[in-house]
Design a protein that fits this description.
disulfide bond, globular, Thaumatin, 31% strand, five-stranded mixed β-sheet
């Protein structure tokens, strides 16, 4: 084995040990909406949250591609099977896969490059419930909010019962989905960006929408955090 391969092996061993030593991050998921939501998380599953209720979720260090969202107008039977108007995840109370758009997303990857957590709110899959995603420990004071009445202002082409779809799920074109890796903001993505400047509006929106905290930080996700901003801007 070459010296380089030995060093590389030690490097990956070091990273693995660091992740094993890192503690799970805690996510306090709260419903402040004046109606019931069915919180969903991958990984994590799902839980009904009436107004004022919360759900504490522990997520392992090193988890990537994770998301939390709210489902609305759900009906489940005793076996945890049914459907939701927005955010449905295969008709299951305990989500095992991502939800169907539209759904406002809190996305995160823990203990990644330089042991940083990467967090964001995304409207790429549209919007169904106002959201606040904030850090609550680790010396990080990051707060991301998307609390404008997007459903009430949604362009007709994106409207669905209970939510406002993102343009990619509706049109499924490279222009809106960035399938080739090259795309620019569109009038539809600008509709979301003007209302929620800190949230992803299209896939290449990283510079203004992706934030970091030190690994080991704990977080809070609030549905309907209050101070709903009603704006009457048009596209």
């Amino acid at each position: 084995m070459s010296f380089f391969k030995v060093l590389l092996s030690f490097f990956f061993l070091f990273i693995a040990l660091q992740l094993n030593l890192a503690s799970a991050a805690t996510f306090d998921i709260r419903n402040n909406c004046p109606y019931t939501v069915w919180a969903a998380a991958v990984p994590g599953g799902g839980r009904r949250l009436d107004r004022g209720q919360n759900w504490v979720l522990n997520v392992n260090a090193g988890t990537a591609g994770a998301r939390i969202w709210a489902r609305t107008d759900c009906q489940f039977d005793g076996a945890g099977r049914g459907k939701c108007q927005t955010g449905d995840c295969g008709g299951l109370l305990q989500c095992q896969a991502y939800g169907v758009p539209p759904n406002t997303l809190a996305e995160f990857a823990l203990n990644q490059f330089m042991n940083l957590d990467f967090i964001d709110i995304s409207n790429i899959d549209g919007f169904n419930v106002p959201m606040e995603f904030s850090s609550v420990s680790g010396g990080c004071s990051r707060m991301i909010r998307c609390t404008v009445d997007i459903v009430g202002q949604c362009p007709n082409e994106l409207k669905v019962p209970g939510g406002c779809n993102g343009p990619c799920p509706v049109f499924k074109t490279d222009e809106h989905c960035c399938n080739s890796g090259n795309c620019e903001p569109t009038n539809y993505s600008k509709f979301f960006k003007q209302r929620c400047p800190d949230a992803y509006s299209y896939p290449k929106d990283d510079p203004t929408s992706l934030f970091t905290c030190p690994g080991g930080t704990n977080y809070k996700v609030v549905f309907c955090p209050g101070n709903l901003i009603v704006s009457y801007n048009v596209i």
